[in-house]
Structures are given as C-alpha cells and as structure tokens.
Amino acid sequence: MPASDQLAEFAARFDDNLQMHGSTLALPPAEQAEIAAACRDTLGAALRELGPEQLRARLAAVRSPEVAHAWLADLGLLDRTRAVQAYPDPVGRRRRFLLYASDAEPRFAVAAGGALVETKVRSVEILGEHWVYEHNLIVETDAPAEVRFADLRGGIRVEEPTPALPPPVDPAVAEHRSRKPWRKLHRLVDADWWNNRKFRLSGIISRRIGPLRRYERAWVLADRRHQADDNAEALFLHLHAERPDINAWFALDRRVPAYRRLRRIGAKLVPYGSIRHYLLLARAEVFVSSQSDPGSRNPFGSFLATSWLFVYLKHGIIHTDHHRRFNPMQIHLVTAATEDERQGLVRERGPYRFAAGEVPLTGMARLDRLEAELAARRERGDSPDVLLITPTWRIYLASPNADHRWSLREGAQASDYVRQWSALLHDERLRAACERHGLRPVLLMHPRFQHHRELLPTPAWMSVASYHDGVAELFARTRLSLTDYSSVAFEAAYGGAPTVYFQFDREAFFSGGHSSQPGDYDFRAQGFGPVVESAGDAVTAVAALLDGTDGNADEAAGYAARIAALYPWRDGRNCERSTAAIERLIAEQR
User: Any idea which GO molecular function terms this record carries (predicted)?
Assistant: First the structure.
C-alpha cells in the first residue's frame, strides 16, 4: 500500500489520542512511541511519493487541524497555517483563533478586522511527544469572518479564517444515544421529552410578546440537575442576599429537597428542564455552573441556540489533566481557588488553551460557607471529630441514563474498585483507630455514585453522608481525610486536615478510561499525606497519622506546611471576588 494511503489510519490514531477517552491513551509509553515513529516514517515516504504540494493538499483533508499542522511541522513544511476559529458556535465579542507554528515565540498579529486582546501558546502533545505549537489569539471583533492575521517574522503565510468543526461525541454519550431501549425509556419517564415539542412554540410566543422582563439580562446558576449545595448555589445565595441588583436565578429539579429549601427563603427558582427554564436561558446574559458537561451547559440541546456567556466555577480544584475535555469548549471564564491551580491552567506552553485573563484567582465560592463553619467551631472551642472517606467515581463503571443520572454498568459490583474499597471500609483496624481518637468514620460517595449506596455497603459503625445533606459542616469537622484522587482533599486541607491517598488503580485511572490524565500535580511531592496502593497500607497510614507514630516527623511537618500555604485567602469573600470577575467578563464581551 502506498505510504500516502496509510495516512488516514495514522490520522485516526492521532485524533484518538487527542480525545478524552481515546483508546491510545491506555497504551504503554513505548507502544505510543512506536506508533509515532512509524507515522514519521510513513510521512517521509509520502513526501517522497507525492512531493510537498500534493502532500499539503492531502493533509488539508485531515479533520483535526492539530494533527495536520503537527505533521507539517515534523516534515519542515509548516510555512503556512490555517486560522481556525476555536469553537463551532462562538458567543461573545471576543473570539479565539488557532494558528500553528514550529516555535513558541510570539509571531502572529491581527492585520485587519479586529483588535488583539490576549495570546496563549500551547504545546500540542500527541502520543506522549511534542509536535507543534498552537498559538491562541483572542480577538475582539464584530465581524469574525473579516479578521485577518499576519506573521510578523514573515516565515508563515496565514490563510483566511475557517470555521471550527464540531468536536467528536464522547464515546460514553454516543453509546447512551445509540440505545433503542434508552429512547423508549426517555419518552416514558423523562418529563422533559413531553415539554420538548412545546419549546419551539414557546420561543415563538416569547418573541411575539416581547422580552419577558423578569428574565431579562439574567444570571442563571446551576449545579447538577438533581443536586445543589455546590459552588453555583454558594454564589447564588451570595447574590440573593448581597446583590439584589443582579437578576440571579437558580435552576434545579423541583423534586429534590434543596428546591424546597431555596423556595422557603424566597429565592428565584426555575424547575430544571421546564419551559420556564428554557425561556430563562433564552434571555440569559450569563450561565454560571460548577459543571461543564454539554447537558449542563445547555440542557435543551438543538432546541435552544446558545447565546449566553459561560462561567465555570468547577466542582473542585483541578489537579489532574483535563485539557482534552476543556479545550474544545467555549468557557469564557474559569475561577481558580489557588495560585498553583491557576498557573496549571494558564502557563505558557502548557496543555490548556486558557489565557491568563480568562482564569481569575477568586477563591472557590463554597469555601465561604466552610470558612463560616470553621469560625463558628473555633468560637465554640469544638475539635474536629470526623474521619472523612471520599472515594471518587469511575466512568468505566457507569453510564448516563434517561434521567440524566448515571447507572451502574453490568459487572460493577465485581470490580476491583468495589473489592478494594470494601476491604478498607470493613477493616476492624480502621474502627479501632477511630475509637482510640474519638472519631466518627463517614463515607461520602461521589455525587454520580451517591444514588448507588449498594455499590459500597458499610459496616454498622460507619456513617454515610450525602451531598444532598450539605457538606460544609462535615468538612469543618474533618480531622483526617481518606480518598483516592478526589479534590475533596483540598477542601479538607482548608480546615487543616491531612489526607491519606489510596491509589490502588492509578494506571487504569489515568490511562484514558476515566475523565482525566496525570497532570503537573504530584500526589507524593505536593499532596497532604502519604500515598498507598493497598487497603491494608491505607488503614496503617490512617492509624499512624492519628497516633503520631508514622516515624517521620519531617514528613508530617511537610504536609502541614503544604496545607498552610495552599490558599491565598481565608476571608469569606470568594463569592464577592467571583461576582466582580463575572461583571468584568460581561462588560468585556458585550
């Protein structure tokens, strides 16, 4: 087979490696390197077969601009670049354009059609190797199609801007959509389906009667569809109490207890997935959420074109690598809780597209509640009395269902996840250590698994908490945290608690099966406690930390120093700073 005909196969493998759940991510580094080397050999042979111009024409058909420009850079043929709009349906006056070069030094400028606001250079790494630099240019413009770029150094010709292609559908979502039983179940049990046929009509009606005043210039906030008590609710409660001048609304399933709780204080609520929710989003100025999946950003899909700015408050501190998930999304603003988190997102030549101005250091909204709880406990003289156990979820053990929750996959009960965590939870030495120190062991499952209590049965001496119950008090009472990879460790650290990391499946967790890969964060060098790989060692580490018999006072002092230096603010004003950042965003984008 001619080398040029083999390029499509390599393009598919390279593109797969750029996806969040790409199968090539699970390959050993040596095998990934073999694929990269074979691709280079094939590219060289194709160049000899076709010549530079015909090969450029062939690579122009490669779906991913990252892959096409990576190959041109490797061949020394990157003397021209596409100017690709980063998102298929962008919102706001500031647009992101992607240009590619073999070097990272700033070289591109706006020649016409707009004003350059900010730049970010990203290293494109595929199959574990650097291939090309992606130059992100954020341009303020009212006519994106008329924007033109120039290379200040004269070595690269910049072609006219081209629209972005829609990102590939996540395999888990594709599987979910393809099931015929799901479609039938969706029609039977999901009330939103019955409303869908009304959404287009409601849009027509609202246009005829004019803007609905109560929804005009709204800030819409939401956490998960079936759960509040996260960063979005924390910010919403601040707006409700302190900023009545902002037209803030909260979207939540009316069946959950938090809906009734918020209604009692007179909060402005809309039932999640209702026509009111649809009309609210259609008039919204900004959508603010702790979640970033497509269903959270726009629950109405093709029934409602996105016209609002998106602010991502996050569910916790980002400490593992999520660039494959975030880069295809238009996220207008991401709030950062620590300086290390912010630098991980915005550093030059890093994996993320976020520029410095898009990631303000505001602090995490829900930590204001935790600060108040800690202050109250200090005033009462209360000591922490909880061992908090927080295993995170595994995407390969669950799949989305018709009710927008997650169902367990067949075989989940027999998984290594269940075996390992069950061994830990039922270890009598854990019980004895808690009794010696007057601690109450509490299991807090991840929100996507908390509806499946049967997955991890607990002994009678262990309590089980839920995010529906409100967790600020629980974190304030935590003396020691036990998790695997969860960002809950950062929240426990806010109150001064160290963490034991139980990472029995690290290779599987970070090999593409879950939603993140290893990032710059080193659990051993930067974490707040020891890292272990077996249930027995985890219990031993818990007992040693509690008893003060770990045998290494320097390590314990190191954990304490990391905890003390973690947060820039402990002043209860994170919501205030987040609000100011969103107001600046609106002023810039509108």
Answer: CDP-glycerol glycerophosphotransferase activity
Task: Kindly state whether residues 69 and 121 are assigned to the same domain.
Answer: yes
Of 443, 447, 473, 479, the residue nearest 460 (C-alpha): 443
SS3 198: helix
Which pair of tokens denotes residue 339?
């300086």
Do 148 and 276 lie in one domain? The reply is no
DSSP 418-439: HHHHHHHHT-HHHHHHHHHTT-
60 within a domain of the structure (yes/no):
yes
Pairing of strands 115-126, 333-334: unpaired
Residue 504 near residue 535 (C-beta atoms within 8 A)? yes
Q: Same structural domain for residues 54 and 193?
A: no
Cα–Cα distance between 368 and 575 in angstroms, integer? 7
Strand partners, 441: 387
Amino acid identity of residue 297, one-letter, is: R
From 162, 182, 211, the end of a domain falls on 162
Range of the domain at 473: 381-565
What does each C-alpha distance from 130 to 24, 36, 354 come to in angstroms?
16, 11, 19
pLDDT-based confidence at residue 513 (cuts at 50, 70, 90): low
Does 167 fall in a domain?
no
Taking the model in full, what pTM does it have? 0.89
Question: Are 309 and 420 found together in one domain?
Answer: no
Summarize pLDDT for 397-432 with one digit per residue, the tens: 776 654 556 667 777 777 888 899 999 999 999 999
Token look-up 């569910």 returns 315
Number of domains in the chain: 3
Q: List phi, psi (to 5°) of 136.
A: -90, 120
Domain identity same for 522 and 582: no
> Which residue type occupies 553?
A
Q: Taking a C-beta distance cutoff of 8 angstroms, is the pair 448, 515 a contact?
A: no
Residues with Cβ < 8 Å from 75, sequence gap 6 or more? 43, 44, 47, 55
Lowest mean per-residue pLDDT among 35-44, 125-134, 294-303, 322-331 = 294-303
User: Which amino acid is present at 51?
Assistant: G
Q: What is the CATH number of the domain that holds 471?
A: 3.40.50.12580
223 and 348: one domain?
A: yes
Q: How many CB atoms lie within 10 A of CB 499?
A: 28
Continuous segment of H or E residues that includes residue 9: helix 3-17
Helix intervals (H) in 210-256: 231-242
Same domain, 445 and 492: yes
- Do 208 and 352 belong together in one domain? yes
Percentage of the chain with pLDDT > 90?
A: 70
Number of H helices and E strands in the chain, helices first, is 23, 21
Strand 333-334 and strand 309-312: pairing? parallel
The pLDDT of residue 212 is 72
- Structure token pair of residue 101: 């070069």
- 373 lies in some domain: no
